[in-house]
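Reopening this ticket.

The earlier resolution said the output was attached, but the attachment link was broken on my side. Pasting everything inline this time so it's all in one place.
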Amino acid sequence: MKIQRKYMAHYLNAAFGGEAAYTRLGDDLEEFSPEMSANVEKKSNILGETSVTINSYQKQGEVKPYYAQEGDPLFEKLQAIIDGDLLLDELKTDIVEVKLWGEVTGTAYPAVREECYIEVTSYGGDTTGYQIPFVVHYTGVKTRGSFDVKTKTFTAA
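Inline output:
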């Protein structure tokens, strides 16, 4: 049976270093697909054989559009990035990918938390509303565990 897209959930930590405040990505998004961007090395030898080495990933995902909503902690953080020209570790947070089709323990599902940095790519938009599209740059530092969708808390395995 095919898994519907809504069962792969992405929760971004809007606290950026403070006590976790996870917000589910998806409002107004028709697509969110983190690109793996593998570093691939190919070498051919004199025998006509090709060896392939994949030695790293530079995963990132674009959130576009993102419509600003008053009272949303993620909007408040994105606006702070714009207003303060934030850089470096001020942009560091984490994102949790939750598999809502997996084994359930109460309201907790299998999940992977990963460090990431947020890059605001622009702000403004058209007449449909104030938009702040951004890119999630994953670091590769992952923690497996579970995520309680009711309390929006991550527990490491």
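Reporter confirms the inline version is readable. The two ends are 28 Å apart (CA to CA). The helical segments are 73-84.
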